[in-house]
Write a structure and sequence with these properties.
The protein contains 14 helices and eight strands. By secondary structure, the protein is α/β, with parallel strands linked by helices.
Length: about 350
Amino acid sequence: MLDLANVLATETEFRQAVQDAVPFRPLYVKIKLTWLCNLRCRMCNVWRQSRENRLTLPVIRSLAGELVALGTQKVHLSGGEVLMRPDIFEVVAAFADRQIQVNLTTNGTMLTPERAAALVESGVHNVSISLDGATPAVHDDLRGKGNWKRTIRGIRNLRRAAKHGRRKLHIRINFVVTRRNYQDAGGLPEIAYQAGADRLTLIPVDDGDGRLRLNKTRIRVYNEEVAPFLAHKALAYRMIAQASEAYPFGREKQEVELSKTGLYARGLYETQPCYMPWIHAMIGPRREVFPCCMMRSTRHFGKFTGGKRFRKVWEGDAFREFRRQMLLPDGRPLACRSCDDFLEENRFLHSICDPSPFIRE
């Protein structure tokens, strides 16, 4: 969950920013460092994207300085597979050296002892590692033969490196829930904990054609037979904070009805805005600035190239118009209905900043 203390401390300023559709601060910025990947996973087409990468190390260092000035607290580096960049450790350090918290997502297969040690030394704070099965057969069915062992080895290498370097490091397991692995999820907390992970996030598969998405019957089986055991074990290992985190499809009838069609926001954005465009942005490898990862295939608000800085796009007219539309019930993108990110954060922000009284069509 995002640390929203900064918003709480300046609640009046945040409410005014929402009302005026102007940015608050880019507290959390996701950066897609590359589309390159060493795997070809069933549920992912990132590796099919454009190979052009204009986020060079000098550009990233300049961006890091700009984000510090704008008040950014955390960046999330992802790909593709970020470890395919030979300069990844310098990239992490560019932000960490400026006291920006660095989160990073990897499939873990390239985390040799040497890379793990270099990553820890670079100053990374949180590493999310994709593990989609408690057993090799299930994970490898989705991510390729032999990759479960490589990923488990990578987790162990990272935990050893953190211990040896006496660095505090959170290792989070990202488990993408699909119809091919949902029954294996119950064993995940034990395997992840033994390997050295201390966090667990369950992510319902983003699957437009529905081939991997769980139907209503499978969600019921998951909720009744898998999730209770998973929640018990994950809570015991403190890998989740509350049992509801083990139920990414929801538990109420209406929530399940929506989740079975891939609408993982479960109706939230029919009743309130998403407030992330005021505190969050995503940057692609070609320096495009998007409101979030759900929008990356449909729109961006400009690129910071030549003399144009990130600030100009963040504060620009296109982003402002997007925020204004977000305040209107029928102005919110349909893609928001499928987004399971930031649900709790948005509920909280709405509780302190309900914009309904000042919305005008």
